[in-house]
Write a structure and sequence with these properties.
Layout: E1 2-3, E2 9-13, E3 18-23, E4 29-34, E5 41-46, E6 53-57, E7 62-65, H1 67-76
Antiparallel strand pairs: 1-2, 2-3, 3-4, 5-6, 6-7
Length: 81
């Protein structure tokens, strides 16, 4: 589990290929992020600026999602969560 720098979001692993992010205050699901291949996550962290979510795996891989960019694109498409 990881909290965003402003503590407004939380990211949690749901299974070996899925991470879900929620608004802390409302509990509303914001995004579901999926790994390209099933892997067991060992750590989650937001970057200090909150723009990326980084996941380390037990297979010694690092996955990085451009979290803020995904949110911006959803807003542009009027699909904001």
């Amino acid at each position: 589990m990881a909290f965003s720098p402003d503590d407004s979001l939380v990211a949690a692993t749901m299974d070996q290929s899925m991470i879900r992010t929620f608004h802390v205050e409302t509990g509303k699901l914001l995004l579901t992020l999926e790994s390209p291949a099933p892997q067991s996550f060992s750590d989650l962290q937001f970057t200090p600026d909150g723009k990326r979510l980084i996941a380390a795996t037990h297979g010694n891989r690092i996955l990085i999602w451009e979290f803020q960019r995904v949110l911006d694109q959803l807003r542009i498409m009027r699909m904001d969560p």
